[in-house]
Amino acid sequence: MWHSADNRSEVSIYPVLFRIGSFEITSFGALVALGALIGLWILRRELRRSALPESGVDAAVAGILGGMVGAKLLWTFEHLGEEPVLDLLLSRGGMSWFGGFAGGVLAGVWMMRRKGLPVLGVLAAAAPALAIGHAVGRIGCFLVGDDYGRPTDLPWAVAFPEGLPPTTVAVHPTQIYEALALVPLALLLFRWRRRGRPDAFVVGAYLVLAGAIRFAIEFLRVDVRVLGGLSVAHLASLAAILIGAVILATSKGQAPLSAALDRTRAR
Asked: Quick one: what percent of the chain has pLDDT higher than 70?
């Protein structure tokens, strides 16, 4: 159950959807799975539009598995000492997006190399899917009361008495903030790809904008500050922005995607 800041309304939510014996199916897990399925569907369409092999989906599946491992491991590392390590690993929420992104990219690139796929082209095709899948996953974080923000008296503030960790104090629903910011990012990525912007531009822009979104929202989060008032997520955001800026710089002078497709069709 969550309550609005002034307790004038209450809305029931369900961190655990149902149980099979001692095994729980959580709303977080269900939304992450839904986000992955939507992302795979979008990626398949983008691969076809870019005349790329559908085996790029295999790289995406590898990325999803690697991302889940990376997300859980980094979140566990960030919260060491708060609970026993096994409890952290088996918690119903608790996944770091940056850990997931790093693990997913490493696993996905490994599969792309193995299958001889153009890494930058597949990553550009995956960028809109990543933004949409990330947004859906953040709704899952909201449903289990994970990754919320600092206390606030804003009208849309939310309390998570069954959250991770529980709080009866109304806080910023930063999960929703991030989900709402990622939707226009995905639309921009779709638009740039439709207009034939180079793959390097799409990938670089995704990293810069996604990193900037998380960097800004992180100031409202309660994560531990580790360096000069910045959290691990802040530092990871800055790294993503820097890498994206370097990739963007390499996109200057590259032929538009539409021109490359025309050459491919002419063969």
From this structure: 84
User: What pLDDT is recorded for position 161?
Assistant: 85
List the chain residues with pLDDT less than 70: 1-14, 23, 90-95, 253-267
pTM of the model: 0.83
- Looking at residue 241, its pLDDT comes to 96
Half-sphere exposure of 248 (CA within 13 A, CB side): 12
Q: How far apart are CA 44 and CA 179, in angstroms?
A: 22
